[in-house]
Amino acid sequence: MKNRWAGRHVAETIFKGLMLFSFGLVAGSLALILWTVISKGLPSLSWSMLTQAPQGGYYLGKAGGVLNATLGSLYMAGGGTLLALFLGLPIALYLETYLGRSVWSRYVRLALDVLWGIPSIVYGAIGFIIMLAIGMRASMLGGIIALTLLELPILTRAIDEVIRMMPRDLEQAALALGATPLEVATRVITRQMLPGIITGVLLAFGRGIGDAASVLFTAGYTDRMPSSLLRPVASLPLAVYFQLSMPYPEVQNRAYAAALILTFIVLVVSLSSRWLGGKLGKFIIK
Amino acid sequence: MQPHIQIRNLNVFYNRDQQALKNVNLEIPHNQITVIMGPSGCGKTTLLKSMNRFLELTDGSQISGQVLIDGEDIYATGMDVTEIRKKAGLLAQHPYPLPMSIFDNVAFGLRIHQMKKGRHLEYAVQHYLEAAGLWTEVKDRLHQPATRLSIGQQQRLCLARGLAVEPEILLADEATSALDPISAQHIEERLVDLKKEYTVVLVTHILRQAKRLADYVIFMYLGEVVECGPAIQVFDHPQQERTRAYLEGRF
Amino acid sequence: MKLPGFENSREGWKQRSSLEFRHRIDKFAGRLFFVFSIIPVFLAIAILVMMIYKSWPIMKTHPLWQMLTGQVWKPDDGLFGFLPFIAGTAWVTLVALFLAVPPCLLTSIFLSEYASHSLRAFMKPLLDILAAIPSVVYGVWGTIAIVPFIQNKLQPFIHQHLGTLPFINSNNPTGFGILSGAIVLAIMVAPFIIAVLYEILSNIPEGLKEASLAMGTTRLQTVRWVVIPQALPGIIAGIVLGASRALGETMAVLMVVGNVAQMPHSIFDAAYPLPALIANNYGEMMSIPLYDSALMTAALILLVIILIFNITSTLALQHVLERNI
Question: Can you tell me the ipTM of this complex?
Answer without folding.
Answer: 0.86
